[in-house]
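Input record (one chain):
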Amino acid sequence: MRERERESRLEQAMVVDQGARHARLHKMQKRAIFSENPFLESTRNSTEYSWNTRANLLYVDQPAGTGFSVGPFVNNGSFEAADDLYMALQEFFAEYTQYGGKDFYITGESYAGHYIPAIAHKIWRENTKGIEPHINLRGLAIGNGWMNAAIQKDIQKKLGVDKKFKDCSLYVGKFSMDRLAPFDTLLPDLLDAEIKVLLYAGDQDYICNWIGYEHVADAMDWPGRDAFLEAPRYEYEIYRAGHFVPIDQPEAAHLMISDFLDGTLGRSSSRAVMSEGSPEL
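The corresponding structure, as predicted from the sequence alone:
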């Protein structure tokens, strides 16, 4: 847990930052997981564009049993991981009541395209039941998310493709089918509940890319779809950014998440910073 560095007129927001799912953790991946944190590389120097200038950051290792989280690795998918995380959040808010009622945002990158829709939908569903403590979910942001893989189980079956995909370990392999399941289908309920959704991607990530995000947004079936498709389009590009935007373009990422929290994303100031430069390989 990293508390906000300074107060402002805005209400504090709680941000759960879900790191990308990787089998091995090397230097770049550690920077990716903690790229929004005020400290990097175990130094006493704070980063200029830390997200905790805008919100309290709560980092979560999940699924249960990974990293510093407590519990056996027994769940087989993102939905079960969401159940565990929801219980952990309930205990957190019950213990630290000073954060109750504050705007709550969930952010993450890469495999968070599965994790975040799952936990956000779980929170929304439990809130509709009146479960306490109530989590004031206001929005979610997914960067370069693995959300709806082009290779789907139903497509494999229709094509008669029986090729087996194997991950690098037995435990990671338990998530194999989870990787192919679409999770963008959970977003319409959240949008209909007026929960903000931000999908962003670096222009140089060719796997979890902005083209796929655009397709997901246009094809999504929800009550506001027609109005969304007919609304004016404004392009905001973060150049020279790959799979982890906050690492490659920390200033633009900080401005983006700040405007997202403020509800001002899309104003000219944001566009100016995010559009600097030109795409280069």
